[in-house]
Amino acid sequence: MIRILIADDHPIVRDGLKKLLSLEEDFQIVGEASDGCEVLDRVQELDPDVLLLDLRMPNLDGLSALQALQQTNKRTRVIVLTASEDKNEFVQAMKLGCSGIVLKQTAPELIVKSIRKVHGGEIWLDSHTTAAVMRQFAAPGDITGGGGGKTRERSPLSQREREIVQLVAQGYKNKEMAEKMFISEQTVKNHLHNIFDKLGVSDRLELALYAIHKGLHLTAER
Questions:
Q1: DSSP letters along 152-167, please?
Q2: Who's near 73: CB < 8 A, 6+ residues apart?
Q3: Could you count the other beta carbons within 10 Å of the beta carbon of residue 200?
Q4: pLDDT in tens, 125-138
Q5: With contact defined as beta carbons under 8 Å apart, do 78 and 69 qualify?
Q6: Could you report the per-residue pLDDT of 57-104, keeping only the tens digit for each?
Q7: pTM
Q8: If you classify domain 2-134 with CATH, what class do you get?
């Protein structure tokens, strides 16, 4: 069972989420919280697998709660569930260790899918927020994670492969990368295949998120 805690200051939202998630056989709603301070108490008391966290809450906002949880409970995976479209908040939430961002206007089946993905150790960003978050995380020519962890490559990337990863993290598509680097689109695909194999990731989004979230430094050596 995936044990879930729902944190939102609107009772109707909490009730709707409970009804939706209770339909899934592998989901168990273990509790609710209506403000940020209550979130911290409930997480400590219940130790849920996944926390659905609203950003705009009384007493302690979602980002502050997230920051506190980073110190006290790193096991619970956090999905920010928000009506906000403030990309800066999303970037801040990712830096504070959240594993997913889901907009409240998202289709119900995607909320369910995001919980399973995050519980499985993956990162979830919907297509509307991904490119914006990538651009703000990854400055041109450099990829650094929020925590600046150690390199996690299985084998060294070539300078050209590093360039490809940097462009992926900035939201470039294959055709745009090919034009920018003066190579064919097939060559870009070949490079991506090699990069996926070396880093053990399965697609472009996972590559960008892996680089960012794990603190993977891929700046070319001078």
A1: --SSPPPHHHHHHHHH
A2: 43, 44, 47
A3: 11
A4: 765 666 556 655 55
A5: yes
A6: 999 999 999 999 988 877 999 999 988 877 778 878 887 888 899 988
A7: 0.66
A8: alpha beta
